Amino acid sequence: MVKALNNKPYPIRHYVKIMLFISIFALVVDLVISFASIFIVKQQSTRYLQDTANLYIRQINHDFSYINHYMGWTLANDESVKIMDTPGTDYVDYIKSSERVHKRFNELQKNYGQEYNFFFYLKEQDFFQNYAPMSLSYTEFQELKEQIVSLTDSKNVYETFYSNWNPILVQDTHYVINIVPYHNRYLICLISADDLVRPLQELDLGEDGFVSLVDAQGAALTSPSTGKAGAKPLEGAKASLFSLSQPRTTVTEGFSNASFNVQLVIQFGVFETIMIAQLLIMLLFVLLTCTLSVVMLYFKKKVLKPIQNFSENVRRIHEDSENLDFMSSEIIELEQVNSQFKHLIEQIKKFKIDIYEQELEKQRIQLDYMKLQINPHFFLNCLTNIYSMAQMQMFKEIEYMSLSTSKYFRYIFQSGDNLVRLEDEIEHVRIYLEIQKHRYRDAFSYHIGFEQELAGLTIPPLVLQTFIENAVKYAVSRDQVLQIRLTVSLRVEDDKPYAVIRISDTGPGFPEDVLDKLANGKPLDQSEGKHIGIMNTLQRLELLYHHRAQVEFSNPEGGGASVALTLPQPLQERRGDIQ
After folding, report:
1. What is the pLDDT of residue 322?
2. Which spans of this chain does the record mark as coiled coil (predicted)?
């Protein structure tokens, strides 16, 4: 018998020494890497937080500058403000002007946040009023008024407050204020110091880290929940290993037109915990190395090698293979697996077929569901209109409204076909528009134009109503009369007829973001029940026509919205469904 390779044997302590040496070496390397990592992460974290603070401050500077300019322009140029400041102004004109100014600053507050409070002060008339929803209590409002009166009496109010934001204390709460004077008119913007720095509180500054707004003397302007009193900030950390022992690092950034600063106190004690954890992990690694070495040797001999043999046999299995013999395996479970392996393959093939058939059934159910989907609000509005007519004893209108509503819903629930005649769909749209005219009266008018020889064209049911309903829902207003137009024509391309249906209105048109998504085939946001009708219609057309139908959305240059549908005629795959 040929003797195997004569490898020199070693005692187990030899391998233990080797593993111990490797473990110690790995531990030392880990310590060096840990210190370097902590130092680098600390510096990068400080730089990141400083960049974040700078970015936030630039945004606040931009907001402050715009609000200051907006208030200055309003005082100098807004006619409503001039009317309110004119002695002897008619009371009705005064109230209307006040409402217009209130509306302007309501919009400004919506753009920049509810935390911004706006006030208007007419010195000669002793008029002081908030011109947007405010977050102050009545006592705070009264104290603020007293302070504003006192501050505006100063001759230096323009130099002190115009284009400059300053801290102010109202009822033991610190605020930041900007006063814009123009003759005896003043517009004031007020924001809580806590609200100003609240976005920065989302940053992870460590267990004891915090964000604070401080004045020019370094006194904290934020409440104790925002900044921690008594904390002594350190100087900026230097790039050295000594900075690892510093518990905190302070980053202070100032605003361009303000007499206060943002201070971030960063707590780095968490890195010490990381280093200790890494040391413990390394010691555990040494212990586990010794244990796992023994376990792996046993596992390789008794478990891994039989499994590898089984895996190699499985790799060679084909769909028509006979059962393989695993009797030589030392693992009984592998023998049991073999008897069911081919059966499993057959089951997988069967499942694939079942899943495919279920997908087809799912598409059919989805198509039927989308055809029957209606808006419950429309039904409720119809009932409400009929109720209102009954109260006003409009019996003829009630008869017409009830009959129209009955026809409308009868058509919806009876349109179980995939395709309907064009004249039936247009009649359904006309009934819908007449129902809506009873609701909106003269708020809109409509025109339906198509030649009688096109009445036999076929289209999917409820497609036209979706876009007509969208125009009524989003374009009808009391300010101007909306015009809705529906036209149908026949176009022939390559000896193939197409029904071209165009629906347009004179409303505000599609929003740019919605128009962009529709043009690029992206799904619209259907949260809160929006855009469900459009998306359902597009999906139905895709299921019925398979890329052959076209829907083009646009906003014409003259204004309004336009939807053009190009539908193949006839649809051979589903034509048999039409009765």
Report:
1. 52
2. 334-373
DSSP codes, 190-245: EEEHHHHHGGGGGS---TT-EEEEEETT--B-S-TTTS-TT--PPPPPPSSGGGGG
- Encode pLDDT of 163-193 as tens digits: 788 888 888 888 988 888 888 889 989 998 8
Dist. CA 535–CA 527, nearest whole Å: 12
- Residue 243's contacts (CB-CB under 8 Å, 6 or more residues apart) are 39, 42, 237, 249
The full set of domains in the chain, from first to last, is 18-285 (no CATH), 417-577 (3.30.565.10)
Name the residue with tokens 């204004």.
559
Q: What's the average model confidence in pLDDT over 298-322?
A: 61
CA separation for the pair 484, 449 (Å, rounded): 11
Burial 309-342 (b: 16+ CB within 10 A, else e): bbeebeeeeeeeeeeeebeebeeeebeeebeeeb
Q: How deeply is 126 buried, as exposed, middle or buried, from its count of CB atoms within 10 A (0-12, 13-18, 19+)? A: exposed
Round to whole Å and give the CA distance between 326 and 465. 68
Alpha carbons 486 and 448: distance in angstroms, whole number: 5
Per-residue confidence (pLDDT) for residue 486, from 0 to 100? 94
**Amino acid letter, 305:** K
Comparing 207-221, 224-238, 408-422, which segment has the lowest mean pLDDT?
224-238
pLDDT above 70 coverage of the chain, percent: 69
CA dihedral angle for residue 332, residue 335, residue 337, residue 341, rounded to 10 degrees? 180
In this prediction, residue 20 carries a pLDDT of 63
Q: Where are the alpha helices (DSSP H) in 248-329?
A: 270-299, 305-315
Give the residue from 436, 577, 556, 552 showing the smallest Cα distance to 501.
Answer: 552
**Bond into 167 cis (ω within 30):** no
Lowest-pLDDT range of 128-137, 166-175, 306-315, 486-495: 306-315
B/e letters for 164-176, b = 16+ CB within 10 Å, e = fewer, are: bbbbbebeeebbb
For the record, the structure tokens of 521 come out as 């085939």
CA distance 431 to 468: 12
pLDDT band at 500 (very low <50, low <70, confident <90, very high): very high
How is the chain split among helix, strand and coil, in percent rounded to 5? 55, 20, 25
Q: pLDDT (tens digit, 9 = 90+) per residue, 230-255?
A: 344 444 434 444 444 455 677 777 78
> For tokens 């323009």, what's the residue?
158
